[in-house]
Amino acid sequence: MQRTPRVSIFTTPHDVARTLARRVAAALRENPRMVLGLPTGRTPLLFYEELVRLHADQDVDFSQATTFNLDEFVGLTAGHAGSYRTFMRRFLFEHVNIDPARTHFLDGAAADLADECERYEDSIAAAGGIDLQILGIGTNGHIGFNEPGPELDARTHKVTLRPETRSSNAALFGGDPASVPTHALSMGMGTILHARTAVLLATGETKAKCVERVVRGPITTTLPASLLQLHPDAELMLDEAAAQELDAPS
Hints:
Strand order of the largest sheet: 1-10-9-6-2-3-5
Strand content: 15-25%
Low-confidence stretches: none
Helix content: 25-40%
Shape: globular
Number of domains: 1
Oligomer: single chain
């Protein structure tokens, strides 16, 4: 039985991004109606840059693809400069031929957040589920906005953000962690684990200790990314810096 998550190590973050972008491009050629789960944050920026380049240079077609973003801040309208919808438009969607009607986001400004979370789950189900879920990892081991804790929500839900998570997102809010919303909506761990394939990107030495724990266990809600060990088709794509702790003795 093959160990999961699989681990692939590349020399640089650019190598990680190029390899994943080529895989996604090949998957879109094979299945133009692919459903992608997408992250935000610093780590996937190079990946999105590579997708844009492949679209321009090799006519990679996004017109029939469907996307679902992992999370969104509570209280932000779609046009807010710090929203993840704005992030995705800026770094990917405005540069490829994706149909805006096929890009799905959580509405952090919805009047009823519980209903909004249920709507999102229904939308994912109506799309046939997520074929490939791409993930980042926080320095505290969160994926999506599933923060460490004694228990984790299975489905899309409202979450209280930890101070370290707000600090990591401060660049979207003028560099001021205090300006980052205190709450967010996020796909739950069950939603993430139901994707047919999951790929976690991690680059840089600040992610190395979390990565080592994800690979070597134990599975624990205090490190949400460790639940990827339960996924039948999960992969960690790492640069050498993020993988450095894997060389240390267990």
